[in-house]
Amino acid sequence: MIRIKRKDTAQTQLAIKDLEEASQRGNSYNTENVNRALKAVFYGKCYICENKHATSYQIEHLIPHHGNARLKYDWNKLFWACAHCNNIKSDKYEPILDCTKRSVEQLIAFRKKGYFGAEEKLEFTPLVSDDEEVEQTVSLLEDVYYGTTPQKKIEAQIIRKNLRKNLSKFKEYVREYQEAEDAVEKDDIGELLKRELNNSSEFTAFKRWLIWDNEMFSEIEKYIPKKD
Questions:
Q1: Which of 78, 102, 137, 223 could link 194 by a cystine bridge, Cβ 3.0 to 4.6 Å?
Q2: Which runs of consecutive H residues, i.e. helices, occur in the chain?
Q3: Could you tell me if 153 and 146 are in contact, meaning their C-beta atoms sit under 8 angstroms apart?
Q4: Strand, helix or coil at 110?
Q5: Are the C-beta atoms of 41 and 4 separated by less than 8 Å?
Q6: Are 135 and 126 contacting, i.e. CB atoms less than 8 angstroms apart?
């Protein structure tokens, strides 16, 4: 879960128009334009777990609308989530961080400790105190990455497997960057790191924290996008 800024695009305007018309007529907000626009905004990944390989995605309301039309059709309250995360979140965690307005990865540390088969553990550490949105978001993250029911635990295992594969590939790029023998090779690998640390990458929060947590990787921080 990272900060993702909403952009005013032609696709976004079509989605907003659909929402306005749906609100006036009492129709569904689940239109093709809204789905396409949300998928584009969130780079095709679930805004909560950052997985791009889910088999089902849904339009998620950051704040449960409970029939409130203003919340139900508000473009700024709609998010792109995988079915796993959306079903777990439901209306159980409120309020959570709005990742389009606050830099989640600056408020929560995302870490994977250990290795597969050797006490592997995901940790979500609040970096501020007395912030209910942060506390609720940490609880949500723990539940989506580990599951809350037998079925959800199996789904969470699949997400963690994908996370493990992503981080393994990322660590290999980091190692190759450190071992590069000349500037050209380093620049080439740097482009790969830049892509992996970009907002559009899967599990970006974990990758950025892997860099932030290690002083020996400080040179790679330049590939992390600056906050806008």
A1: 223
A2: 10-25, 32-41, 69-72, 83-89, 104-107, 132-146, 150-179, 183-197, 204-212
A3: yes
A4: strand
A5: yes
A6: yes
The owner of tokens 């981080």 is 167
Q: How many CB atoms lie within 10 A of CB 91?
A: 10
Contacts of 160 (CB under 8 A, 6+ apart): 120, 122, 145
Q: Is 167 left (phi over 0), alpha (psi -120 to 50) or beta?
A: alpha
Q: Measuring CA to CA, how many Å separate 143 from each of 33, 36, 154, 212?
A: 31, 27, 12, 24
What size, in residues, is the chain?
A: 228
pLDDT band at 113 (very low <50, low <70, confident <90, very high): very high
Treating both helix axes as pointing N-terminal to C-terminal, what angle do 132-146 and 150-179 enclose, rounded to 10 degrees? 100
- Confidence at 228, pLDDT banded by 50, 70, 90: low
Section 170-186 average pLDDT: 96
Work out whether strand 57-61 and strand 78-82 pair parallel, antiparallel, or are unpaired. antiparallel
Cα–Cα distance between 220 and 88 in angstroms, integer? 35
Write the pLDDT tens digit of every residue in 194-223: 999 999 999 999 999 999 999 999 999 999
